[in-house]
Design goal:
Layout: E1 2-9, H1 18-24, E2 32-38, E3 41-47, E4 61-62, E5 68-76, H2 79-85, H3 96-107, E6 117-125, E7 130-135, E8 144-148, E9 151-155, H4 162-165, H5 172-179, E10 196-197, E11 202-207, E12 210-215, H6 231-249, E13 256-259, H7 264-276, E14 282-288, H8 294-306, E15 309-315, H9 321-332, H10 341-352, E16 357-359, H11 364-367, H12 375-384, H13 388-396, H14 406-417, H15 421-427, H16 430-435, H17 438-445, H18 460-469, H19 472-486, E17 490-492, H20 498-504, H21 520-525, H22 532-536, H23 549-560, H24 566-571, H25 576-580, H26 590-606, H27 616-619
Helix pairs in contact: 2-3, 5-17, 6-7, 6-20, 9-26, 12-13
Length: 621
């Protein structure tokens, strides 16, 4: 795991201080920071040593004939298998970085199809005078760029582009999308003007003639349910895929740990780790609040012991929540929610213990139909196909959370998917409309359309899963990357192995939710290894309050205070009533006011002053 930066200008020497670009992101790679400058090209790299800890594996990395230079962030988990296929290349290291260059030598830009992993990389091919870069299929690793006039500049984080752009400016189109709950995740534009992101599953080619971006992976192309697949076949293949995925992700030359919630996702990962290290206790971390009762702590300990984990229960407490808000915005570069602070406590504890690589169960809910809102579209699918018996069973065994106000939820979720969704969303926004300045409302009203829920198949359930991969999951992965990197930790997510995800979109939906049991394939395939307490609790029932309610209120209060500052009033992004409202903590409005305060915090951290290095304020937290 690392940070990469660079600048390419085919008409001359690229401008911008490459060493300063690295400095802005060196939290991503504190072990070594190096740069190289060639004709037309400047590359920089901040390395967190994970595989092949020798200096030979440092970057920027050159091919053996010096014709290709590469900077790479992430992991190629199948690098050993690929290396065995690349007999024509003379390898100098035991790292996955060199395999990217060898694969490019052999297969050209098609090499990216061979990679299993999480990655963002850029390489310069001197012989062909072409720059090639790519981002992993689900967007686990980030890549931002600026393309102005003759120069193309890139960075793992927006802040790495400050030496190129000078002062950062806001992108109000994206800010408005955020405030109106429009899905902005799949847009190239970000919260900063003139900066774009390479999207998940995309690659780019930069030549003297210009920039070309395209997709090498499309999730929608993987949706092809095998209606003849049996339950036994599905469970067998899933278990095989998950075991392989976890075994890939425990490869490391530094200590490996696990973020363990006690839920079925992290438990499944723990089972995979136990198979990989049968004689070794792996350090795990569980976030708890002071309000968690002893019986639940005992359950976590019992589960950890049975899974071969050395467990540490970490209390979600903070010394200075206001400074932590600033630090979080600095690292996130986008608005965030209060739950993000659980990631702070876990990563901080892992860093204190010297655990460099941490594995987590993120991504299971999407492929295993774990979210509560998947029930409704699945029921609608059964009704639509006139499978009345199955529809009755689904309704009868529905989760207890859906037994109250069930039909209201059904209507809400139906509108979320239906073609009338955009109209429904616009008409249900009187509160946000009343709180914004005319400037922001005009930007929204001038948009040609909001982005609808995309229909990729006739199945409502599959469409919901697909769109969560393209919205909710991308937001979560951004949090996981930025906060783990803030503490120089590498976070790995086995459920986002693309082979596993591709397979799950071939499993018939009737096998995914059975008699009220979501994640049916996951649970039943591992039933012999799962502690009973893992699946005896409904989703989120165990450790329901991981973040202390009083800390949550304090974070909310500290964030809302930004709306009362003189800077906020002078900026005037919101209606004048926002700056004088004495009921900002009103429960009915806190969600919207939090979003407004996040936009103000974004301005005060990034746009109100010139950002210079070193950043002393981060050391105070």
């Amino acid at each position: 795991m690392c940070g990469i930066v660079g600048a390419i200008n085919y008409k001359g020497n690229p401008f911008g201080d490459i060493k300063l670009m690295v400095d802005f992101i060196k939290h991503r790679g504190p072990d070594t920071q190096k740069t190289t400058e060639l004709e037309f090209v400047k590359f920089g790299h901040a390395r967190l040593r994970i595989m092949d800890l020798s200096s030979k594996a440092d970057q920027p990395f050159f091919s053996s004939d010096k014709s290709i230079v590469l900077v790479f962030n992430g992991e190629i988990y199948n690098f050993k298998e690929l290396k065995a296929q690349l007999n024509n290349y003379s390898f100098q290291t035991n790292c996955d970085t060199e395999v990217i260059i060898a694969a490019y030598h052999e297969w050209g830009i098609a090499c990216v199809d061979k990679f299993i992993g999480m990655f963002a990389f850029v390489l310069y091919d001197k012989k062909n005078k072409v720059t090639f870069g790519a981002r992993d299929r689900f967007g686990i690793k980030p890549l931002f760029y600026v393309h102005q006039e003759d120069q193309f500049s890139f960075s793992s984080e927006v802040k790495g582009l400050i030496p190129i752009l000078g002062k950062l400016e806001p992108n109000y189109e994206v800010i408005v999308d955020y405030l109106y709950d429009t899905n902005f995740e799949l847009k190239e534009d970000v919260f900063f003007a003139n900066i774009k992101q390479l999207l998940p599953g995309q690659y780019f080619l930069l030549r003297e003639s210009g920039l070309e971006t395209n997709y090498y992976y499309s999730l929608s192309d993987q949706i092809n349910p095998n209606v003849g697949m049996t339950d036994i076949q599905a469970k067998s293949e899933f278990k095989k895929q998950l075991t392989q995925s976890v075994s890939y992700r425990v490869q490391s030359d530094v200590p490996v740990g696990l973020y363990f919630s006690g839920g079925v996702d992290s438990t499944a990962v723990a089972i995979g780790i136990k198979h990989a290290f049968p004689d070794k206790k792996i350090q795990s971390y569980t976030a708890i609040s002071k309000n968690v009762v002893q019986s639940e702590k005992d359950i976590i300990k019992s589960m950890s012991d049975s899974l071969g984990l050395e467990n540490k229960q970490v209390k979600s407490e903070f010394k200075n929540s206001k400074l932590l808000l600033i630090k979080t915005m600095w690292h996130m570069e986008t608005p965030f929610s209060p739950s993000i602070f659980l990631d702070h406590v876990l990563n901080k504890e892992a860093k204190n213990d010297g655990i460099t690589v941490v594995i987590e169960g993120q991504g299971a809910d999407e492929s295993q139909t774990g979210y509560l809102h998947y029930y409704i579209p699945h029921l609608v699918d059964c009704i639509k196909s006139k499978n009345w018996k199955r529809a009755y069973i689904i309704f009868k065994y529905r989760p207890k959370q859906l037994k109250k106000k069930y039909f209201l939820i059904l209507v809400r979720e139906f509108f979320r998917y239906s073609k009338l969704y955009n109209l429904f969303k616009i008409k249900s926004k009187p509160l946000i409309n009343s709180l914004l300045s005319q400037k922001l409302k005009d930007i929204y009203s001038n948009k040609t359309t909001t982005q609808p829920i995309k229909k990729v198949t006739d199945s409502h359930l599959t469409n919901f899963q697909y769109n969560d991969y393209k919205s909710k999951l991308i937001r979560v992965l951004r949090v996981k990357d930025r906060i783990s990197m803030a503490y120089s930790r590498e976070l790995r997510v086995p459920f986002l192995d693309h082979n596993l995800v591709n397979f799950m979109f071939k499993v018939p939906n009737d096998l995914k939710i059975v008699k009220g049991r979501q994640k049916n394939i996951l649970i039943t395939s591992l039933i012999d290894d799962l502690p009973k307490s893992t699946y005896s609790y409904s989703k989120n029932d165990l450790l329901r309050e991981k973040l202390n309610s009083d800390i949550h209120k304090k974070l909310l209060k500290n964030s809302l205070e930004y709306l009362s500052t003189e800077k906020a009033r002078e900026r005037g992004l919101f209606h004048s009533s926002v700056y004088t409202d004495s009921n900002l903590m009103d429960k009915k409005r806190t969600g919207i006011y939090w979003k407004l305060s996040q936009i103000e915090l974004l301005h005060q951290v990034f746009f109100d002053k010139e950002i210079t290095y070193p950043l002393s304020f981060l050391d105070e937290i």
